[in-house]
From TrEMBL:
Stated name of the protein: SusC/RagA family TonB-linked outer membrane protein
Family note: Belongs to the TonB-dependent receptor family.
Organism encoding this protein: Chitinophaga oryziterrae
Gene3D superfamilies the UniProt entry points to: Carboxypeptidase-like, regulatory domain (2.60.40.1120), TonB-dependent receptor, beta-barrel domain (2.40.170.20), TonB-dependent receptor, plug domain (2.170.130.10)
Keyword Phosphoprotein among UniProt keywords: no
The keyword Cell membrane is assigned to this record: no
Length: 983
């Protein structure tokens, strides 16, 4: 008992001593400019987890272990404050305008984010590296409001499709203009995401107007990294990932195919039992049926792919000389053999201050591609009769399985059978000289050159899929050369007079684009090892073609920016472009724009409210042009025509080519109105931007089909009108930020209504080309399938000329007759809306990023859904088809006497709702603590794992509908492990 009492008094004494040493601190936190109390401010003892928050009156009380130390006050939207401990603390916090003061790159200049008058989205380089990809544009899919990005296929190095605010042109190019370090650059896939400092997307006419005709479809500006003064900094970035097919639907198995063909012949009365199999299958197929031998060729063709990237960047320099050097190796192996891309690139950026008025520099990059591609083999794999084995007992390929007419889908993969190899070298150089002779005045001259040289060699032996019906091999050797030269001179002047700020920019530019190519072909190569070389030795089919294209664009631009008290902003732009592609008298056009903004949040009447942290209203209007047609569209050309006087004597003859020239060709014009609202609320906890735009395009550059009586095929004319209007929303939120844990979200939403307003004949639809007034450019126009005629509907089907088991379509006009008047627009190939949500979680040294992307309202023509052969001559997809014993509304009755093309309304089977939601990216990273890294001279080390394109949710089973309905080169999902190190 005495021992217990002693322990009790010792504990009580220790507690009393601790209380005697503790220290209570009280205080109040207010806004430095308004004096208003700040609620829920984090108050934390520096270097510890001890802390509290301010109450509704801005007051706080915190018990500390002693009267020593410093308190850190942090609050979203305000600059952090650190103060020594006092008994009664009065803390004033300044607003943090870092986001508004961020510099955004615009055409031929930079502005602070707060001074933007146009619709511009900016993405920092760190964001671009979150999704490992071949093309940097893929990494921002769904993250840029108003920018629609899709991948064309799953092949190595596949193209990325990008449109900004929908399709304006019907047949002219709708892709955006890419500007890299101030120079136009077509091949954005050359740029490593690790080399990019920032990306800006210019969307409205005011922002793009300074680029004139080149910016009609939006502008994407990429600024690469530059050197920094001081100690050299080295970064190493690498990742390795394994790619797998992102769902691929299966064709019929052997038994399923047998059942289909039996039913097709049962319909005609040729097959009634298994005893009749020899009547519809050959001897080899009968043996395969009896032994249950069949092959799924897709499984043999599709393999796991590989993607890896290794990049080293070095940045350094002095106060006057700054250098950035980067080397990158990228390797992607596709899902098929013979599908591989290797990219080697090097970048050197140098900036040199010569003296107080002169600065020079250059940005340069060289990129080399070594790429092997192949025709997609799945088309052959999906139609070949599966009742066979691909190899014989010795493991040798059976070229024509079961003695059939279809070649083995694995034929191209055999040694010396097929090769399609590209060698591409691109050199990019942009040199500049910049003079600042007076304060506020600068002159910069940029000279950019892009040299593109390519060679494509193709060899296909007679034992390949493409040559299976030919008697000899074919070799092709194609070369191409592009020379793009840009010379731009930019004069800028900045002046501030009391509350008035002026900025003037004048630009004169000359752009030259020259391209030539050659095509060589021969058949019957003597030695397979010679591939596509020594074409003169080919025994037949020698063909030679060459081509040349050239165009020039001369431009003069002026822009005036005005700012009054930082609250009222005005921008006026005018650009005059002259294009060599257009007709004399129509080569020049003037493109004006105007934009204004009102920073409501800076008004005096807004200072006493606490809901809005920032508020700005924007509006703009402008006209842009488009000359995106092939050079020489104004001229008719001659083509050689085979001609002879008699059966033995030939002669040379020439005629007008397929396309006749148009001497009246002029600019395609787009006028855009944009109204935007930017604001942040709750001390910048939530940031919001929204734009409404309306674009009217007229004088479309349209290739029009001419009647055969004209003697030519087509002509490019200025005919038709389109309209694009929609809304774009971007939301950034700070959901949680406390005790070392943060959760931020980024939400985007884009809704675009795209429609054709007029065509060649005013309000008349162009059914032949699938263009319809009031609908988008790309739609599906056909009969509407409503089911299959059932046995109980036999009498009604007969009235329409059909029978039970046939496809039933809607009688739109209720005429009692099914004809072309019953075709309607079933769906559009562009989405009704798209968007994404990205959530980033950080705790201690861990970071987790989850990104979800959606594309809703688009339709696809599913190749799989239409993969149905009612005759059973080829393999089919596994579908529930109609039989008298098993009636269904899915697919028509098999019929050996009716071909696929002869089956009424067979094309209606493929039209499907292609809307989808996908988990685009999940990435988990860990950064080593700085204390550990100091001993190894490493400033930062982060390891991460990423899952890309992991899950897709749609109505289309076992298929990723992002790329449309094609079965070739399926899209992939990828699992990645990566490393980022900085020294």
């Amino acid at each position: 008992m005495k021992k217990l009492l002693m322990i009790y008094w010792l504990l009580l004494g220790s507690a009393g001593l601790a209380l005697a040493q503790s220290h209570v601190v009280k205080g109040k936190v207010t806004d430095a400019s308004t004096g208003d109390p700040l609620v829920m401010v984090n108050v934390q003892l520096k270097g510890t987890s001890t802390g509290t928050r301010t109450d509704a009156s801005g007051n706080f009380s915190l018990t500390l272990p002693s009267d020593k130390g410093e308190l850190v006050f942090s609050y979203l939207g305000y600059q952090a404050v650190t103060q020594g401990v006092n008994d009664n603390m009065n803390v004033k916090m300044e607003k943090d305008n870092k986001q508004l003061d961020e510099v955004v790159v615009i055409g031929y200049g930079e502005v602070k984010k707060r001074d933007l008058t146009g619709a511009v989205v900016s993405v920092k380089g760190e964001e671009l590296k979150k999704v490992p990809s071949t093309n940097v544009m893929e990494s921002v899919q769904g993250k840029l409001p108003g920018v629609d990005i899709t991948k064309s296929s799953g092949a190595a190095g596949a193209k990325i499709n990008v449109t900004v605010r929908g399709n304006r042109s019907i047949r002219a190019d709708n892709g955006p203009l890419y500007i890299v370090d101030g120079v136009q650059y077509e091949n954005i896939q050359d740029i490593s995401p690790n080399d990019i400092q920032s990306m800006e997307v210019l969307k409205d006419a005011s922002s793009t107007a300074i680029y004139g005709s080149r910016g009609a479809n939006g502008v994407i500006i990429i600024t690469t990294k530059k050197g920094v003064s001081g100690k050299p900094r080295v970064s190493v970035n690498s990742y390795v990932g394994s790619s797998k097919v992102a769902g691929y639907p299966a064709m019929d198995t052997g038994p399923q195919y047998v059942a289909l063909k039996r039913e097709a012949n049962h319909t005609t009365g040729r097959w009634n039992s298994v005893a009749d199999d020899p009547l519809i299958f050959n001897a080899s197929e009968v043996a395969a049926i009896q032994n249950n031998l069949w092959t799924n060729y897709a499984d043999l063709l599709i393999h796991d792919g590989l993607q890896q990237d290794y990049q080293v960047g070095v940045s350094g320099g002095s106060e006057k000389t700054k250098v950035y050097l980067s080397l990158d190796y990228f390797d992607e192996k596709g899902l098929f053999k013979l599908d591989r891309l290797k990219r080697y690139s090097g970048r050197l950026n140098i900036d040199q201050i010569v003296n107080s008025v002169l600065k020079v520099g250059m940005q340069s990059q060289i990129t080399y591609y070594d790429q092997n591609t192949r025709p997609d083999p799945l088309n052959q794999a999906n139609k070949i009769v599966p009742l066979n084995l691909p190899y014989d007992e010795k493991g040798q390929l059976i070229l024509f399985p079961n003695n059939g007419s279809m070649i083995n889908p694995l034929a191209d993969e055999q040694p010396n059978a097929y090769q399609n190899n590209f060698h591409i070298t691109r050199t990019f150089l942009n040199a500049y000289i910049e003079l600042t002779p007076l304060k506020g005045l600068s002159f910069r001259s940029n000279f950019g050159v892009t040299l593109d040289n390519s060679r494509n060699g193709i060899y296909a032996s007679k034992n390949t899929i493409g040559r299976s019906t030919a008697s000899s091999s074919r070799s092709q050797y194609n070369t191409g050369s592009k020379r793009y030269i840009s010379w731009e001179n930019v004069l800028t002047y900045q002046k501030t007079i009391r509350d008035h700020s002026f900025g003037a920019t004048a630009v004169a530019s000359l752009l030259s684009d020259q391209r030539d190519s050659s095509f060589l072909q021969g058949e019957g190569q003597l030695l397979p090892s010679q591939l596509y070389y020594a074409l003169a030795n080919n025994v037949s089919g020698i063909a030679v073609r060459t081509s040349y294209l050239a165009s020039k664009l001369i431009s003069f631009t002026g822009r005036l920016n005005y700012n009054y008290k930082g609250k009222y902003l005005l921008s006026l732009t005018g650009r005059s472009d002259g294009s060599s592609k257009l007709a004399p008298g129509n080569k020049w056009a003037f493109f004006p724009s105007v934009a204004g903004a009102w920073r409501i949040g800076d008004e005096a009447f807004m200072h006493k409210q606490h809901f809005f942290s920032d508020l700005k209203l924007r509006a703009s209007y402008g006209i842009a042009g488009n000359d995106a047609v092939s050079p020489y569209s104004t001229a008719s050309y001659l083509s050689k025509i085979p001609f002879s006087y008699d059966d033995t004597n030939s002669a040379l003859a020439y005629g007008i080519g397929n396309q006749i020239g148009n001497k009246n060709l002029k600019w395609e014009l787009s006028a855009t109105t944009d109204i935007g609202l930017d604001f942040s609320i709750l001390h910048q906890r939530i940031g919001f931007t929204a734009d409404y735009y309306d674009t009217h395009t007229k004088d479309l550059l349209l290739q029009r089909t001419l009647p055969t009586s004209s003697g030519v095929g087509t002509v490019v004319q200025n005919i038709g009108k389109t309209r694009n209007r929609g809304i774009e929303i971007g939301i950034n939120t700070m959901n949680v930020n406390t005790h070392g844990f943060s959760w931020t979200s980024n939400i985007t939403f884009s809704k675009n209504k795209e429609e054709i307003v007029a065509l060649a004949d005013a309000n008349t639809n162009d059914v032949a080309n699938g263009w319809f007034i009031g609908y988008p450019v790309k739609v599906f126009y056909d009969y509407q399938k409503t089911g299959i005629w059932q046995s109980k509907e036999a009498d009604q089907a007969t009235k329409f000329g059909y029978k039970p088991g046939d496809i039933k379509v809607r009688d739109v006009d209720n005429s009692g007759v099914l004809n072309t008047a019953d075709r309607i627009v079933l769906g559009k190939q562009v989405p009704t809306w798209s968007g994404g949500i990205s959530n980033t979680f950080k705790y201690a040294n861990f970071d987790l990023d989850v990104y979800v992307f959606a594309r809703i309202g688009q339709w696809i023509n599913s190749e799989y859904a239409a993969k149905y052969d009612p005759q059973g001559l080829e393999n089919s997809a596994n579908f529930n088809y109609w039989t008298p014993e098993r009636e269904t509304n899915d697919y028509p009755r098999p019929n050996a006497s009716v071909s696929k093309d002869g089956t009424p309304f067979i094309k209606t089977l493929g039209y499907k709702d292609g809307s989808f939601v996908k988990i685009r990216n999940i990435s988990l990273g860990y950064s080593l603590p700085s204390g550990i890294l100091k001993r190894s001279h490493i400033s930062n080390l982060r390891v991460y794992v990423t899952g890309k394109n992991l899950f897709t949710f749609s109505k289309v089973k076992d298929y990723d509908p992002e790329r449309g309905g094609d079965l070739s080169n399926p899209l992939t999902k990828m699992y990645v492990a990566g490393l980022n190190v900085e020294f």
